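Example S7 (C-alpha cells).
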C-alpha cells in the first residue's frame, strides 16, 4: 500500500485491510508488537551532532543510529519554542489548532513596548485530545514518560495524558541545576531505582538510569518510552569529567563551548545506554526508535546553527529546522538520507501506522501530520504534501516576533504580523535566508501568501491584537 497523503487515511486503510471472519489484519495485530522509543532533546540545533556536521561535539552513539536508520535533512519542529512542539508531538496537530502556541507560561514581560498583544492562548495540553500515549496504551502498550514534560501542571501531567509511569515530568521547562538534587520539590520524581542509585547523579545520567531500569522491567510486553531530555537547555552545565575532556580538544570553527559540548555528549551517552539495554533485553530488533529536537539551537555563547540563519525563538530556519533520525528495524535502509520535508506532527500518525494502533477516530480526523511510512521504506519517494506551516502570535526574549510562515517546495514565505511585511526565500539556493525574493517572485509570493492565510482560516488560528498602550517613538 502506497500511503501518500493523509497519514490518518493511510492508517485507517491499513487497519481496514482484510478483516476476515471476525479477525483483523496482521498489520493491526503483529505477533510481536514493536516497542517504541522516542528521544526528544531540548534545544538541540541542526548542526549539533557529528552526523549533521558538528566540528567539535562528538556523538558516536547517535551517529551510529543514523548509520543504521534514516537521517532527515529537512525535518522541522512545529514551533520555534518548546511547549507547542511537545503538544504537536502528543496530538499530531498544529499548535494553531490546539491553541498551545508558546512555551508555558510564555514571556512575563509587560507588552507596553510592543505594537501587538498576544491572544488568550491555551497554557496546557487539553484533556479532550487523544495523546499519543493514550492511543498506544489503548492498544496494550505500557507507556513511560522520562524527563521534561512542560505541557501543564497538576491535572495535566503525563499521568493525566496516558502515561502509566512518569519520572521527572512536571510543569517546569528546565531544571535549576543539572547536578543533584536538580531542583528539589519543583521537579516531579517517580523512580524505578533504589535511593542509593539516585543521589549524586548528573541529571541526564539519572534519566538514562531510569530508562535502563524501565526497559528491563517492561521488556516482556510492548512499551512506549518517551525519553524527553532536559538537556541541552540552559543552565549550561556539563558533567565535570566530560567538560575536562572537551576542554582538551581543539575548538571547531562553529562549535566552541566545552560545557555545551559535554551536555551534548552526555545525551549521546544516554542514547547509547538505552540502545545497549534494548540489545541486552533481546528487544532491539523489534523496537522503533525516533530521535529529534523540540526547536532550534541557541547561539548565545553555546552553539551555532550556521549555515542556517537564526536560533531558537526566531522565525528563520535556525529556529525550527532540527535533526531527526528514525530506525525501523528491518525496514529503514542503513545510512539512508531523506530530503523530504517533515515536521513534528508527522510522528503521531507514523507511529500509529507502524505499530497498527487505531487511535481515536474523532481525534484522527483532525490530525495534521502525515504518515512517514512511505519515505521510511523509500527515502526517494514523495509524501505529496502541499506545504508546511508555522503560526507564532507572540514575542519572546530571543528577539522573536509574531509571525506566520509557509514552506512549499523550495520556497519559504514569512509574514510579520506587526505590519504585514513579507520575506520570500528559495532555500535550495539560499539556505541562510539572505536574499528576499518578494519583488523578484511576485507570483510565488502571492500563491504562498494565499496558502498561509487559507491555513490560518482553516485552523481558526488566534491572532495577536493591536496594543492600545503602544506609543510609537520617533
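Recovered sequence:
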Amino acid at each position: 500500500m502506497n500511503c501518500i497523503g493523509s497519514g490518518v487515511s493511510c492508517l485507517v486503510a491499513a487497519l481496514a485491510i482484510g478483516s476476515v471472519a471476525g479477525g483483523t489484519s496482521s498489520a493491526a495485530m503483529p505477533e510481536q508488537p514493536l516497542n517504541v522509543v522516542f528521544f526528544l532533546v531540548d534545544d538541540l540545533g541542526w548542526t549539533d551532532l557529528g552526523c549533521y556536521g558538528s566540528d567539535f561535539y562528538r556523538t558516536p552513539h547517535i551517529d551510529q543510529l543514523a548509520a543504521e536508520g534514516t537521517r532527515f535533512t529537512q525535518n522541522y519542529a512545529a514551533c520555534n519554542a518548546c511547549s507547542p512542539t511537545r503538544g504537536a508531538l502528543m496530538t499530531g496537530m498544529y499548535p494553531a489548532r490546539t491553541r498551545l502556541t508558546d512555551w508555558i507560561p510564555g514571556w512575563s514581560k509587560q507588552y507596553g513596548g510592543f505594537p501587538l498583544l498576544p491572544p488568550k492562548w491555551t497554557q496546557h495540553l487539553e484533556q479532550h485530545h487523544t495523546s499519543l500515549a493514550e492511543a498506544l496504551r489503548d492498544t496494550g502498550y505500557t507507556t513511560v514518560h522520562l524527563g521534561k514534560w512542560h505541557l501543564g501542571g497538576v491535572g495535566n501531567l503525563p499521568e493525566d495524558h496516558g502515561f502509566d509511569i512518569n519520572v521527572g515530568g512536571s510543569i517546569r521547562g528546565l531544571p535549576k541545576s543539572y547536578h543533584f538534587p536538580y531542583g528539589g520539590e519543583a521537579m516531579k520524581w517517580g523512580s524505578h531505582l533504589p535511593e542509593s542509585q539516585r543521589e549524586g547523579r548528573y541529571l541526564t545520567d539519572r534519566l538514562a538510569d531510569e530508562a535502563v531500569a524501565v526497559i528491563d522491567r517492561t521488556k516482556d510486553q510492548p512499551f512506549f518510552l518517551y525519553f524527553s531530555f532536559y538537556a541541552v537547555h540552559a543552565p549550561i552545565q556539563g558533567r565535570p569529567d566530560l567538560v575536562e575532556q572537551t576542554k582538551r580538544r581543539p575548538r571547531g570553527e562553529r562549535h566552541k563551548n566545552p560545557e555545551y559540548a559535554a551536555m551534548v555528549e552526555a545525551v549521546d551517552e544516554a542514547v547509547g545506554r538505552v540502545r545497549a539495554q534494548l540489545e541486552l533485553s533481546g528487544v532491539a530488533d523489534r523496537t522503533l526508535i525516533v530521535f529529534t529536537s523540540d526547536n532550534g539551537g541557541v547561539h548565545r555563547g553555546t552553539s551555532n546553527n550556521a549555515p542556517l540563519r537564526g536560533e531558537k525563538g526566531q522565525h528563520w530556519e535556525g529556529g525550527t529546522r532540527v535533526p531527526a533520525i528514525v530506525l525501523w528495524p528491518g525496514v529503514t535502509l542503513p545510512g539512508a538520507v531523506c530530503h523530504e520535508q517533515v515536521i513534528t506532527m508527522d510522528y503521531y500518525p507514523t507511529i500509529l501506522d507502524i505499530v497498527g494502533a487505531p487511535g481515536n477516530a474523532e481525534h484522527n480526523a483532525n490530525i495534521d501530520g502525515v504518515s512517514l511510512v512511505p519515505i521510511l521504506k523509500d527515502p526517494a519517494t514523495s509524501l505529496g504534501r502541499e506545504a508546511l506551516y508555522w503560526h507564532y502570535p507572540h514575542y519572546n526574549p530571543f528577539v522573536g516576533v509574531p509571525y506566520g510562515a509557509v514552506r512549499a517546495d523550495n520556497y519559504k514565505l514569512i509574514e510579520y504580523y506587526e505590519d504585514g511585511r513579507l520575506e520570500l526565500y528559495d532555500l535550495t539556493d539560499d539556505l541562510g535566508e539572505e536574499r528576499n525574493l518578494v519583488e523578484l517572485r511576485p507570483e510565488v509570493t502571492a500563491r504562498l501568501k494565499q496558502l498561509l492565510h487559507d491555513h490560518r482560516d482553516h485552523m481558526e488560528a488566534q491572532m495577536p491584537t493591536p496594543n492600545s498602550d503602544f506609543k510609537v517613538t520617533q
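Notes on this example. The radius of gyration is 22 Å.
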